[in-house]
Amino acid sequence: MAHQYQANIETFKDWLRNDVFPLWSTKGIDRDSGGFVESLSFDGKPMDVPRRAMVQSRQIYSFLTGAKMDCCRTDLAFEAIHRGTGYMIDKFSLPSGAFSYSVNPDGTPKILNPDLYTQAFALFGLAQAYSVEARPVYKERAKQLVKYLRKERTVPGGGFTELDEKGNVSFKSNPHMHMFESAVAWMQVDRNDQDWKDLGKELVDLALNKFIDPQSQVLGEYFDSNWNHLRENGRFIYEPGHQYEWAWLMSLYEELTGKDLKSVRHQLFLLAEKHGVSKTRKVVFDEMWSDYTPKTQTSRFWPQCERIKAACRLGTEVSTGQEQYAQAADDALNTLTKFFKTPLEGTWYDMASETDTFNGTSAKASSLYHIINAMEEYANLRGKLAGV
Protein backbone atom coordinates (compact mmCIF):
# COMPACT_ATOMS: atom_id res chain seq x y z
CA MET A 1 0.00 0.00 0.00
CA ALA A 2 1.35 3.41 -0.93
CA HIS A 3 1.91 5.83 1.93
CA GLN A 4 0.47 9.34 1.90
CA TYR A 5 3.95 10.85 1.86
CA GLN A 6 4.62 9.17 -1.50
CA ALA A 7 1.53 10.84 -2.95
CA ASN A 8 2.71 14.15 -1.46
CA ILE A 9 6.07 13.79 -3.19
CA GLU A 10 4.53 13.08 -6.58
CA THR A 11 2.04 15.94 -6.22
CA PHE A 12 4.75 18.45 -5.44
CA LYS A 13 7.14 17.23 -8.10
CA ASP A 14 4.34 17.56 -10.65
CA TRP A 15 3.66 21.09 -9.40
CA LEU A 16 7.32 22.04 -9.74
CA ARG A 17 7.65 20.37 -13.13
CA ASN A 18 4.39 21.56 -14.70
CA ASP A 19 3.71 24.91 -13.04
CA VAL A 20 6.65 26.42 -11.18
CA PHE A 21 9.60 26.04 -13.54
CA PRO A 22 7.68 26.68 -16.78
CA LEU A 23 6.56 29.99 -15.24
CA TRP A 24 9.76 31.12 -13.55
CA SER A 25 12.05 30.02 -16.41
CA THR A 26 10.10 32.21 -18.83
CA LYS A 27 8.50 35.14 -16.99
CA GLY A 28 11.02 34.99 -14.14
CA ILE A 29 14.14 35.54 -16.25
CA ASP A 30 14.90 38.83 -17.97
CA ARG A 31 16.18 37.78 -21.40
CA ASP A 32 16.96 41.38 -22.35
CA SER A 33 18.72 42.89 -19.34
CA GLY A 34 19.82 39.58 -17.83
CA GLY A 35 19.33 38.09 -14.43
CA PHE A 36 16.28 36.94 -12.50
CA VAL A 37 13.30 39.17 -11.85
CA GLU A 38 12.37 40.11 -8.30
CA SER A 39 8.72 39.03 -8.33
CA LEU A 40 5.77 38.11 -10.54
CA SER A 41 2.25 39.46 -10.27
CA PHE A 42 -0.60 36.98 -10.06
CA ASP A 43 -1.39 37.74 -13.69
CA GLY A 44 2.07 36.46 -14.61
CA LYS A 45 3.90 39.73 -15.26
CA PRO A 46 7.31 40.72 -13.88
CA MET A 47 6.98 43.47 -11.29
CA ASP A 48 8.75 46.74 -12.11
CA VAL A 49 10.70 46.87 -8.86
CA PRO A 50 14.40 46.85 -7.90
CA ARG A 51 16.21 43.52 -7.97
CA ARG A 52 18.14 42.27 -4.98
CA ALA A 53 21.45 40.42 -5.22
CA MET A 54 19.96 37.91 -2.80
CA VAL A 55 17.31 36.94 -5.36
CA GLN A 56 19.96 36.22 -7.99
CA SER A 57 21.76 33.92 -5.57
CA ARG A 58 18.64 32.13 -4.41
CA GLN A 59 17.41 31.51 -7.94
CA ILE A 60 20.78 30.06 -8.92
CA TYR A 61 20.22 27.54 -6.14
CA SER A 62 16.58 26.96 -7.04
CA PHE A 63 17.27 26.14 -10.68
CA LEU A 64 20.16 23.87 -9.73
CA THR A 65 18.00 21.98 -7.24
CA GLY A 66 15.13 21.82 -9.71
CA ALA A 67 17.44 20.08 -12.18
CA LYS A 68 18.66 17.67 -9.49
CA MET A 69 15.04 16.76 -8.72
CA ASP A 70 14.28 16.22 -12.42
CA CYS A 71 11.72 19.01 -12.24
CA CYS A 72 13.55 21.41 -14.54
CA ARG A 73 15.45 20.62 -17.74
CA THR A 74 19.17 20.50 -17.02
CA ASP A 75 20.18 22.55 -20.06
CA LEU A 76 17.64 25.23 -19.19
CA ALA A 77 18.72 25.27 -15.54
CA PHE A 78 22.42 25.50 -16.32
CA GLU A 79 21.85 28.34 -18.79
CA ALA A 80 19.86 30.23 -16.14
CA ILE A 81 22.59 29.60 -13.55
CA HIS A 82 25.34 30.78 -15.91
CA ARG A 83 23.46 33.95 -16.88
CA GLY A 84 22.33 34.68 -13.33
CA THR A 85 25.82 34.32 -11.88
CA GLY A 86 27.31 36.56 -14.53
CA TYR A 87 24.60 39.15 -13.88
CA MET A 88 25.21 39.04 -10.11
CA ILE A 89 28.97 39.50 -10.47
CA ASP A 90 28.64 42.17 -13.15
CA LYS A 91 25.84 44.30 -11.71
CA PHE A 92 26.27 43.99 -7.94
CA SER A 93 30.05 43.92 -7.38
CA LEU A 94 31.53 46.85 -5.47
CA PRO A 95 35.20 47.98 -5.56
CA SER A 96 35.60 46.89 -1.92
CA GLY A 97 34.94 43.26 -2.82
CA ALA A 98 31.43 43.39 -1.36
CA PHE A 99 28.12 43.09 -3.20
CA SER A 100 25.49 45.84 -3.29
CA TYR A 101 21.95 45.29 -2.05
CA SER A 102 19.97 46.02 -5.24
CA VAL A 103 19.89 47.36 -8.79
CA ASN A 104 17.11 48.83 -10.90
CA PRO A 105 15.42 46.58 -13.51
CA ASP A 106 17.71 48.08 -16.17
CA GLY A 107 20.77 47.01 -14.17
CA THR A 108 21.80 50.44 -12.90
CA PRO A 109 22.69 50.73 -9.20
CA LYS A 110 19.85 51.25 -6.73
CA ILE A 111 20.94 50.58 -3.13
CA LEU A 112 24.70 50.22 -2.71
CA ASN A 113 24.59 49.19 0.94
CA PRO A 114 26.70 46.03 1.49
CA ASP A 115 24.47 44.52 4.19
CA LEU A 116 25.72 41.26 5.68
CA TYR A 117 22.63 39.31 4.64
CA THR A 118 23.37 40.12 0.99
CA GLN A 119 27.04 39.16 1.39
CA ALA A 120 26.02 35.80 2.84
CA PHE A 121 23.78 34.99 -0.09
CA ALA A 122 26.24 36.22 -2.71
CA LEU A 123 28.78 33.80 -1.25
CA PHE A 124 26.15 31.05 -1.27
CA GLY A 125 25.20 31.67 -4.91
CA LEU A 126 28.82 31.58 -6.00
CA ALA A 127 29.22 28.18 -4.32
CA GLN A 128 26.18 26.84 -6.17
CA ALA A 129 27.50 28.12 -9.50
CA TYR A 130 30.94 26.65 -8.74
CA SER A 131 29.35 23.24 -8.14
CA VAL A 132 27.96 23.34 -11.70
CA GLU A 133 31.12 24.61 -13.32
CA ALA A 134 34.33 25.12 -11.30
CA ARG A 135 35.23 28.41 -12.92
CA PRO A 136 38.19 30.13 -11.20
CA VAL A 137 36.39 33.48 -11.45
CA TYR A 138 33.61 32.22 -9.15
CA LYS A 139 36.03 31.13 -6.44
CA GLU A 140 38.18 34.25 -6.84
CA ARG A 141 35.13 36.45 -6.44
CA ALA A 142 34.06 34.51 -3.34
CA LYS A 143 37.55 34.92 -1.87
CA GLN A 144 37.44 38.68 -2.51
CA LEU A 145 34.18 38.85 -0.59
CA VAL A 146 35.55 36.95 2.41
CA LYS A 147 38.68 39.12 2.38
CA TYR A 148 36.48 42.23 2.47
CA LEU A 149 34.48 40.87 5.41
CA ARG A 150 37.65 39.97 7.31
CA LYS A 151 39.14 43.41 6.69
CA GLU A 152 36.14 45.70 7.09
CA ARG A 153 33.41 43.95 9.06
CA THR A 154 35.01 41.74 11.71
CA VAL A 155 33.67 41.87 15.28
CA PRO A 156 36.24 41.30 18.09
CA GLY A 157 34.09 38.56 19.63
CA GLY A 158 33.72 36.73 16.31
CA GLY A 159 31.42 37.19 13.35
CA PHE A 160 30.66 40.32 11.37
CA THR A 161 28.76 43.58 11.61
CA GLU A 162 25.45 44.28 9.93
CA LEU A 163 25.00 47.65 8.17
CA ASP A 164 21.86 49.52 7.16
CA GLU A 165 21.58 52.13 4.41
CA LYS A 166 22.47 54.94 6.83
CA GLY A 167 25.61 53.19 7.97
CA ASN A 168 24.21 52.16 11.34
CA VAL A 169 25.87 49.06 12.77
CA SER A 170 23.92 46.20 14.36
CA PHE A 171 24.58 42.63 15.42
CA LYS A 172 22.24 39.87 14.25
CA SER A 173 22.34 36.09 14.15
CA ASN A 174 20.27 35.63 10.98
CA PRO A 175 22.86 36.85 8.44
CA HIS A 176 25.44 34.73 10.24
CA MET A 177 23.20 31.70 9.80
CA HIS A 178 23.20 32.29 6.05
CA MET A 179 26.94 32.97 6.11
CA PHE A 180 27.27 29.59 7.85
CA GLU A 181 25.09 28.12 5.09
CA SER A 182 27.44 29.54 2.46
CA ALA A 183 30.51 28.23 4.30
CA VAL A 184 28.93 24.76 4.38
CA ALA A 185 28.08 25.05 0.66
CA TRP A 186 31.70 25.91 -0.18
CA MET A 187 32.98 23.11 2.08
CA GLN A 188 30.82 20.69 0.09
CA VAL A 189 32.16 21.73 -3.32
CA ASP A 190 35.74 22.79 -2.45
CA ARG A 191 36.65 20.41 0.35
CA ASN A 192 40.38 21.06 0.65
CA ASP A 193 40.31 24.84 1.04
CA GLN A 194 41.03 25.83 4.66
CA ASP A 195 39.33 29.24 4.34
CA TRP A 196 35.87 27.67 4.14
CA LYS A 197 36.61 25.38 7.08
CA ASP A 198 37.82 28.33 9.16
CA LEU A 199 34.73 30.35 8.31
CA GLY A 200 32.41 27.48 9.14
CA LYS A 201 34.11 26.81 12.49
CA GLU A 202 34.01 30.47 13.49
CA LEU A 203 30.30 30.70 12.78
CA VAL A 204 29.24 27.45 14.44
CA ASP A 205 31.29 28.40 17.51
CA LEU A 206 29.56 31.79 17.60
CA ALA A 207 26.18 30.09 17.51
CA LEU A 208 27.08 27.62 20.24
CA ASN A 209 28.79 30.12 22.54
CA LYS A 210 26.82 33.34 22.01
CA PHE A 211 23.63 32.97 19.98
CA ILE A 212 22.16 30.11 22.05
CA ASP A 213 21.08 31.29 25.49
CA PRO A 214 22.27 28.85 28.22
CA GLN A 215 19.14 29.35 30.31
CA SER A 216 16.31 29.04 27.76
CA GLN A 217 18.34 27.01 25.23
CA VAL A 218 16.83 29.01 22.36
CA LEU A 219 18.83 30.91 19.74
CA GLY A 220 18.27 34.67 19.79
CA GLU A 221 18.10 37.14 16.92
CA TYR A 222 19.44 40.50 18.15
CA PHE A 223 22.59 41.35 20.11
CA ASP A 224 24.89 44.10 21.35
CA SER A 225 28.49 44.45 20.18
CA ASN A 226 29.65 41.86 22.73
CA TRP A 227 27.09 39.32 21.49
CA ASN A 228 24.85 39.70 24.55
CA HIS A 229 21.14 39.20 23.80
CA LEU A 230 19.18 42.42 23.47
CA ARG A 231 16.38 42.10 26.02
CA GLU A 232 13.07 43.82 26.66
CA ASN A 233 11.70 43.37 30.17
CA GLY A 234 14.16 40.53 30.63
CA ARG A 235 13.15 38.69 27.46
CA PHE A 236 14.73 38.45 24.02
CA ILE A 237 13.28 37.55 20.62
CA TYR A 238 13.84 34.26 18.84
CA GLU A 239 12.29 32.72 15.72
CA PRO A 240 11.20 29.07 15.60
CA GLY A 241 11.88 29.02 11.86
CA HIS A 242 15.51 29.86 12.51
CA GLN A 243 15.73 27.19 15.23
CA TYR A 244 14.78 24.64 12.58
CA GLU A 245 17.13 26.15 10.03
CA TRP A 246 20.15 26.20 12.35
CA ALA A 247 19.41 22.60 13.39
CA TRP A 248 19.33 21.51 9.74
CA LEU A 249 22.50 23.39 8.80
CA MET A 250 24.37 22.01 11.79
CA SER A 251 23.51 18.50 10.63
CA LEU A 252 25.16 19.20 7.26
CA TYR A 253 28.18 20.66 9.05
CA GLU A 254 28.42 17.61 11.30
CA GLU A 255 28.45 15.34 8.23
CA LEU A 256 31.37 17.31 6.80
CA THR A 257 33.46 17.70 9.96
CA GLY A 258 32.43 14.99 12.38
CA LYS A 259 31.81 17.61 15.11
CA ASP A 260 29.16 16.19 17.44
CA LEU A 261 26.25 18.63 17.39
CA LYS A 262 23.44 16.12 17.74
CA SER A 263 22.18 17.11 21.18
CA VAL A 264 22.24 20.82 20.32
CA ARG A 265 20.45 20.28 17.02
CA HIS A 266 17.70 18.14 18.47
CA GLN A 267 17.25 20.54 21.39
CA LEU A 268 16.70 23.44 18.97
CA PHE A 269 14.23 21.34 16.98
CA LEU A 270 12.27 20.04 19.96
CA LEU A 271 11.98 23.47 21.59
CA ALA A 272 10.62 24.87 18.32
CA GLU A 273 8.16 21.98 18.15
CA LYS A 274 7.02 22.40 21.75
CA HIS A 275 6.59 26.17 21.88
CA GLY A 276 6.78 27.57 18.35
CA VAL A 277 3.96 25.68 16.62
CA SER A 278 0.24 26.33 17.08
CA LYS A 279 -1.30 23.06 18.23
CA THR A 280 -4.66 23.95 16.70
CA ARG A 281 -3.65 25.72 13.48
CA LYS A 282 -0.48 23.62 12.95
CA VAL A 283 1.50 26.64 11.79
CA VAL A 284 4.93 27.81 12.91
CA PHE A 285 4.80 31.23 14.56
CA ASP A 286 7.03 33.95 13.15
CA GLU A 287 8.43 35.34 16.41
CA MET A 288 8.63 34.20 20.03
CA TRP A 289 9.84 35.62 23.32
CA SER A 290 12.50 33.71 25.23
CA ASP A 291 9.95 32.84 27.90
CA TYR A 292 8.38 30.67 25.15
CA THR A 293 5.35 32.89 24.54
CA PRO A 294 4.44 34.02 21.00
CA LYS A 295 5.42 37.59 20.11
CA THR A 296 3.38 37.39 16.90
CA GLN A 297 0.63 35.00 15.84
CA THR A 298 1.23 35.52 12.10
CA SER A 299 3.02 32.90 10.05
CA ARG A 300 5.14 33.40 6.97
CA PHE A 301 5.50 30.48 4.59
CA TRP A 302 9.24 29.93 5.04
CA PRO A 303 9.25 28.62 8.66
CA GLN A 304 6.99 25.81 7.47
CA CYS A 305 9.71 24.91 4.94
CA GLU A 306 12.40 24.90 7.61
CA ARG A 307 10.26 22.65 9.81
CA ILE A 308 9.97 20.15 6.94
CA LYS A 309 13.74 20.10 6.35
CA ALA A 310 14.72 19.75 9.99
CA ALA A 311 12.06 17.12 10.76
CA CYS A 312 13.08 14.95 7.81
CA ARG A 313 16.84 15.13 8.35
CA LEU A 314 16.94 14.95 12.14
CA GLY A 315 14.26 12.27 12.18
CA THR A 316 16.55 9.86 10.36
CA GLU A 317 18.95 9.99 13.32
CA VAL A 318 16.65 8.79 16.10
CA SER A 319 15.97 5.13 16.82
CA THR A 320 12.78 5.76 18.80
CA GLY A 321 10.16 8.45 18.36
CA GLN A 322 10.55 8.84 14.60
CA GLU A 323 6.79 9.20 14.34
CA GLN A 324 7.03 12.65 15.95
CA TYR A 325 9.44 13.83 13.27
CA ALA A 326 7.40 12.26 10.47
CA GLN A 327 4.24 13.92 11.76
CA ALA A 328 5.98 17.28 12.00
CA ALA A 329 7.18 17.00 8.39
CA ASP A 330 3.72 16.01 7.12
CA ASP A 331 1.91 18.70 9.12
CA ALA A 332 4.31 21.37 7.87
CA LEU A 333 3.90 20.21 4.29
CA ASN A 334 0.11 20.31 4.58
CA THR A 335 0.31 23.83 6.01
CA LEU A 336 2.68 24.93 3.25
CA THR A 337 0.23 23.88 0.52
CA LYS A 338 -2.24 26.50 1.77
CA PHE A 339 0.20 29.22 0.72
CA PHE A 340 0.12 27.94 -2.89
CA LYS A 341 -3.61 28.53 -3.48
CA THR A 342 -3.14 31.72 -5.49
CA PRO A 343 -4.85 32.96 -8.69
CA LEU A 344 -1.82 31.77 -10.71
CA GLU A 345 -0.46 28.22 -10.53
CA GLY A 346 3.24 28.13 -9.71
CA THR A 347 3.12 31.11 -7.34
CA TRP A 348 2.61 31.58 -3.59
CA TYR A 349 1.49 33.89 -0.85
CA ASP A 350 4.07 35.11 1.65
CA MET A 351 2.16 35.31 4.94
CA ALA A 352 -0.86 33.88 6.74
CA SER A 353 -2.70 36.14 9.18
CA GLU A 354 -3.62 35.14 12.73
CA THR A 355 -6.85 33.73 11.26
CA ASP A 356 -5.09 31.87 8.43
CA THR A 357 -6.20 34.23 5.69
CA PHE A 358 -3.94 35.32 2.84
CA ASN A 359 -3.62 38.50 0.83
CA GLY A 360 -1.27 39.83 -1.81
CA THR A 361 -1.08 40.34 -5.55
CA SER A 362 2.39 39.00 -6.36
CA ALA A 363 4.87 36.23 -5.55
CA LYS A 364 8.49 36.83 -4.52
CA ALA A 365 11.13 34.96 -6.50
CA SER A 366 13.17 34.68 -3.31
CA SER A 367 10.61 32.26 -1.86
CA LEU A 368 11.41 29.43 -4.26
CA TYR A 369 14.74 28.79 -2.53
CA HIS A 370 12.92 27.85 0.69
CA ILE A 371 10.22 25.85 -1.06
CA ILE A 372 12.41 23.71 -3.27
CA ASN A 373 14.94 23.05 -0.48
CA ALA A 374 12.10 21.69 1.67
CA MET A 375 10.69 19.66 -1.23
CA GLU A 376 14.07 18.07 -1.96
CA GLU A 377 14.60 17.04 1.66
CA TYR A 378 11.06 15.68 1.93
CA ALA A 379 11.44 13.71 -1.30
CA ASN A 380 14.82 12.28 -0.34
CA LEU A 381 14.33 11.59 3.37
CA ARG A 382 10.67 11.28 4.32
CA GLY A 383 10.56 7.63 3.25
CA LYS A 384 13.27 6.81 5.79
CA LEU A 385 11.04 7.82 8.71
CA ALA A 386 8.61 5.53 10.51
CA GLY A 387 4.93 6.43 10.36
CA VAL A 388 2.48 6.69 7.52
UniProtKB/TrEMBL annotation:
Alphabetized UniProt keyword annotations: Isomerase
Acyltransferase as UniProt keyword: no
Keyword Isomerase: yes
Matches recorded under Gene3D superfamilies: 1.50.10.10
InterPro entries for this protein: 6-hairpin_glycosidase_sf, 6hp_glycosidase-like_sf, AGE/CE
Family: Belongs to the N-acylglucosamine 2-epimerase family.
This protein's name: AGE family epimerase/isomerase
